[in-house]
Amino acid sequence: xxxxxxxxxxxxxxxxxxxLEAAGEVVVPERALVADELGAACSTGNxxxxxxxxxxxxxxxxxxxxxxxGISNYAVGYDNVDVAAATRRGILVxxxxxxxxxxxxxxxxxxxxxxxxxxxxxxxxLRSGQFRGWQPExxxxxxxxxxxxxxxxxxxxxxxxxxxxxxxGMTVRYTARREVPDDELGxxxxxxxxxxxxxxxxxxxxxxxxxxLTDDTHHLIDAxxxxxxxxxxxxxxxxxxxxxxxxxxxxxxxxGQIAGAGLDVYEQEPEVADGxxxxxNATLLPHVGxxxxxxxxxxxxxxAANAIAMARGEMPEHPVNPEARLSSGTGHRARG
Length: 336
Ligand code: DGY
Fold this sequence. Notes:
Rossmann fold; binds (2R)-2,3-dihydroxypropanoic acid
């Protein structure tokens, strides 16, 4: 039987590459492929599965001539892939859900605490030699305990953030399409309340975003939403940058419409909006929500396992479009 070929756009951490190399031939481009090159590489018929990063964009044009069985995304999010277009071509798309929930929730909590307590400013203050000893009003911040956390979206990561926030004595509210019944809430039962989006925006001390990026959530937090927030409130984003209108956010932070922001994701990564990096009331991290050694290694294992299953024509563990298998797509080359 022919060994499958994997196009790996960026090498995976251990044990990902070892698993792929044991299962087939691995092709790693010498440098990152730009859109046209990715489309061309997918259309050669030389690769069974693409092992991709969220920085690899598979839009309609890239997928137009794609001749691969599947795309195994090394991420839980898959907004870099036009899943509908992939499904039409019979191309399965996989992600790595579940394993980065705790790490990302930890980071949301870190951003809440760091932003409220001006951690980055305080660190810079000390390192620059300005610390002359304790002062009654040095670097005063805001309380986290007793504050209200508003979660936009109430999936796995939001719920894990809620558990942490309750441990810090916060009041937790969420907005989601449906009220989650207590019997689905486990340790959160009776301790969180669903409210409408507008009320959540108006009443939260910390508004934390936990929705996927879709047409509906693009710029969900725009100038109007920022104006509706309390002037003492903080915006926290560990989900996807384009959910926030970043230019409007810079204005809101600069004009004191809101107190601060803690961000791990940006609208045009790796760029950040003009002026954002100069604002002292913003805590800015470089998209590291899942960046622990063990999480990245587990993601690599899942990602490789998904890729290997697809290459063998089996249903992988984490397909986001299992229906692609039933589609009449033109997806994959015939193999000998
Ligand atoms: C994801 O998995 O979607 C994160 O953004 C990166 O780990």
